[in-house]
Amino acid sequence: MIKRFVLAAVLLVLAGCGGPAADGRDDPWSAAGVDAPAIAERQENGRTVVVVSATTTLPLPAEKNRTGFDRRAAKIVWRHHVGRVDAIDLTTDSGSSEPYRRTWERPGLEAAFGPRPAGPDLGRAPEPGPAPSAGPFADPHPATAGDAAGIIIDVLHRTSRDHFGMAPAPLAPEDGDECYEDGLFGDRPSGTVQSGYPVEFPAGFTTADPESLLPGLAEYWASLGLRVDTGRLDDGLADLTATVPGTGGVAVTVRDSGEHPMNIHGYTVCLPPR
């Protein structure tokens, strides 16, 4: 099971890769299949409206795909455009579909995606994700897979209980799955194991848009000492990952529908069995 999870995570990262941006991070527009978005500003009664036209090479065969890409493009502008954003006048298309136009007002952007990163409203480039603090998980040294599992489960329990106010899911360390000396597709057991721990949040666990909770979750995980990666969040997607050094990590995904709109998967690295 864990090999399937790791493979899915690898493919997820590769699917979001784009060219490097000026700040050294991946270009979010390139990751979204947009080569050259047209971006301008206009002033309306003291408000700054960012006007964007973006054509993507990603297929948008249905209305749901078009509205989904519109949301992704709006989030990229919200997180990256340097300068005040009071509204976004956004037109998107795939080159083979009718253009989709929508105006996003600032309160709607905040409700959908959470607060803007520090800096852009003041004319500065957005900073990387939150730096880890000297929290309880900043420098653990698990000796066994069981120790690592206990740490990851503790992170998941704290996230549910302390951050979201939810009763923690009943999780306990498992025996884990075999790791292999020659990597993900290997066939030589290494004598170490790793395990995965999924947590599903039911519909109605929050009155907010679940995607808007991700920036706050990034800050919370950083306060615990986790190394947070906001790369996919910055690419306009509803995903966030964080790692615990030498132990494992957590990955959260928000879905736009279904009984469980938010899912967090905790996992451990390969370590000797407990």
UniProtKB/TrEMBL annotation:
Keyword list, A-Z:
Signal
Which stretches of sequence are listed as region Disordered? 110-144
Low complexity biased stretches: 134-144
Superkingdom in the source lineage: Bacteria
Which N-terminal stretch is annotated as signal sequence?
A: 1-21
What protein does this entry describe? Answer: Uncharacterized protein
Per the UniProt record, the source organism is Catenuloplanes indicus
Organism classification, top ranks? Bacteria, Bacillati, Actinomycetota, Actinomycetes, Micromonosporales
